[in-house]
Amino acid sequence: MVRRGDRVSWNYRGSRSYGVVTGTGGNKATITGPSGGKVTRVGSPEDPVVRIKSETTGNPVLKRQSQLRKAPKKKKKD
User: Which residues of 10-36 are buried (b: 16+ CB within 10 A; e: fewer)?
Assistant: First the structure.
């Protein structure tokens, strides 16, 4: 189970993307994408919707928990 603040990864267009969980739970969630379109994800009690902030773009992302993997914390640059 992922929690708020966890770093996660998911597969997007054949490559691995990373982000930080900003919210969890719920069976349905909707966000406004960067181009202004609405994105909705429907989950279930066993596979809830997770809100994520993408590390690459800073945009909000919605995924079901089953689509995510926990990722190691990002290393700090000296």
Answer: beeeeeebbbbbeebeeeebeeeeeee
